[in-house]
Hints:
The complex is a heterodimer of chains A (310) and B (326).
Chain A: H1 8-12, H2 14-18, H3 26-31, H4 37-61, H5 65-70, H6 85-91, H7 100-130, H8 136-146, H9 152-164, H10 171-195, H11 199-207, H12 212-223, H13 225-241, H14 244-249, H15 259-269, H16 274-294, H17 296-305
Helix pairs in contact in A: 4-16, 6-16, 7-10, 7-13, 7-15, 8-10, 10-13, 13-17, 15-16
Chain B: H1 3-33, H2 39-65, H3 79-86, H4 88-119, H5 125-133, H6 140-150, H7 170-177, H8 191-217, H9 221-229, H10 234-262, H11 266-271, H12 281-291, H13 295-325
Helix pairs in contact in B: 1-2, 2-13, 3-4, 3-13, 4-8, 4-10, 5-8, 8-10, 10-13, 12-13
Amino acid sequence: xxxxxxxxxxAIDGATVSSKPPRRTRGEIAKKGLTSPWASLVxxxxxxxxTIPTAGLLVTSFRPQLDINKTGWWTVFTNPDFxxxxxxxxxxxxxxxxxxxxxxxxxxxxxxxVLLPILxxxxxxxxxxxxxxxxxxxxFVAVFALQVVPIQVTLLPLLTLYVKLHLNxxxxxxxxxxxxxxxPLAIFLLHxxxxxxxGELIEAARVDGAGHVTIFFRMMLPMLKPALAAFGIYQFLxxxxxxxxxxxxxxxxxxxxxxxKFLFDLTGSRGNAWFLxxxxxxxxxVIPVIVFLSLQRYFVRGLLAGxxxx
Amino acid sequence: MxxxxxxxxxxxxxxxxxxxxxxxxxxxxxxxxxxxxxxGWWFLGPSLVLLAIGLVYPALxxxxxxxxxxxxxxFIGIDNYTTIFTNSDELVVLRNTVLWTLVxxxxxxxxxxxxxILVDRAKGEAVAKAxxxxxxxxxxVGASIIWKFMYDFRDPSGGTAxxxxxxxxxxxQVIVWLGGKPYNFLLNSPWNTFxxxxxxxxxxxxxxxxxxxxxxxAIPADIVEAARLDGVGGFEMFRYVTxxxxxxxxxxxxxxxxxxxxxxxxIVRTMTGGNFDTDVIANTFYSQTFSANNQGLGAALAxxxxxxxxxxxxxxxxxxxxxxxx
Lengths: 310, 326
């Protein structure tokens, strides 16, 4: 039945193919194809495989400490025994293994580290998109190219710089680092969104005597909301889940370290303390998963717009 | 607990930062009123300064350091690079990085693509997608903990006949159920690298699925319909209609995942610490720079990482150009 389709171009060129009369009714054809029971079965198997690892640790986080190391988490289906003790322990601020200070640090790190690059990038993207100056294109390509720079290349010189400026071990070092690393992608993404706004709107405002500052605040920012959400959630997940920047620039102890660093240290020092690791891991996941599920639409849009950051 | 001062710090930082921006924009507005025509520079200024300090200067500095000795003092030419490409430990690191970068993109993309096609327009598509996509939302550290638990190994020889050692890692339990012997997944090279790669595939398949699903949905309906009417279905539909249409997106996904794998750090650091011959460039860079105090070698490793990324990006950009030009 495929004899007439020898090259992909034939199939893509709708005109050549559709001239033939239908051989079966559409209903019959729709049933065929990939939506067969086998396809559904494969999809379900994949979905289950993808869920089990997380589900296993989630179940574990609710099991008593002694049980966790004695029997597998799947035994709860025959021997149910659940407790909230693990969560109480990781959240209890009087314990040395408490996660709470790091949770606070994660929040304190993330909010400015998302807001700062967004604001700066908005301004820069506007300049690239709607103002004229010498060397604009060259500069834009340069900023675009900076997305490629692996942050490893920057870490040691930045650390030396922070030590000289007495910023090392403070939140400023982390905020500034995330801002600088996030800027190239942010500028690129927001520039692309801004270019889609019709030029006549800007021109009309210019003719009416509006300056760039006015245009930026009155016209651009309101129209950019979806783009800001797209980059915002991207940057949020990046910062919240980051380990490398935290390891390099966060101070010792509970001063500025985020949850990722705490969990990392815990796997090193108490790698078999699954009651702490499981509960801790899920506390660190709750916020990004909620943000992610509620803003998924924007996140996908951000992903589609560009994703070479690192 | 010192929550209040920290939150206060945060608020101050945002306010200070906001004030600086408002100040700059105020000056820009003033400048425009006086007839200035280069307002763009005011908008760009803060970003350019930060990019220069945070990316350009450090990158150049690292390049410079890569030709110097461990303390960053004496010029030693290309010795650090020679070490990377001749030292047996470093060669294992390179081998592992190549494995990561070759295996992960293809497997993750294949799974993502298969899943995207399977659930396309199926019942409960949104939920089905969220299940695969969710690992993207959690940290690599969290994912590493999840999988370390999956791989957990209990030496069975320590138990007695009455109280045999129970496996608590699911994979080893399945092996036992199937009559096999528990296996220490993270210990034996080179297979342990593949078991670490599984974690990355688990995460990146969701990314591949999302991008590819979006581009499958963007295929014009009349093309699909026309092929359908012509009796094309199942695999032929994929081979002659779907795949050619989404080829540019597949390239983007492959290259993006490859870049992420070149820089992979968190998974290796958390799961094995780079021990048992699982080390990769990004991790050994960190160890050399911050633990072993070998700045020169660390810098050279970072530069190698940089150089390895460039051809992938160039290829990616070229493919995009080509598909736009059509």
